[in-house]
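ESCALATION

Customer reports they have been waiting on this structure for their group meeting. Please prioritize. Original submission:
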Amino acid sequence: MTGVPSADVLAAEVLELLVRRGQTLAVAESLTGGLIAAELTEVPGASRVFRGSVTAYATDVKRGMLGVDGALLTARGAVDVEVARQMAAGVRRILGADWGVSTSGVAGPDPQDGQSVGTVYVAVAGPDGTAESRELRLDGNRTRIRRESVQEALGMLLGELIEKMRAQDTEQSAGD
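Update from on-call: job pushed to the front of the queue and completed.
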């Protein structure tokens, strides 16, 4: 992860952009167990834009609380790209946020749902209703996999925020 900003730097940048945009954020976490929410709430003033989080560690919580499709969970298990997308969209909806971010994966020590240790999916759902996701293959022990998942999720969210801002600027320039 050389050259990638640390999670605390990413969290501060995400929150700053959300404040400037007047938008809010919610988080759904599985393997990270609240670590993303912890990074965000370490930043003074996070309450201006951070709505809250759901630590959906159990599969029935993903289904019942976040609205992840039960048939999808049965067919593919909880460690899946579409599950991560639905988690991000679900937390965005239930907590009334503009943006949702989620993590689902296997931190170890054992494989889960046919997925190897280090398989992680992160997703970001935006105000336009679309959800982007990314598959990660991380190495290391449980702590390292969880920490890198936080960093990747925040980095992905920051990238999406920057991309949406550029698109809006371009649209506004074209309309002038």
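Sent to customer with the following note: The mean pLDDT is 95.
Escalation resolved.
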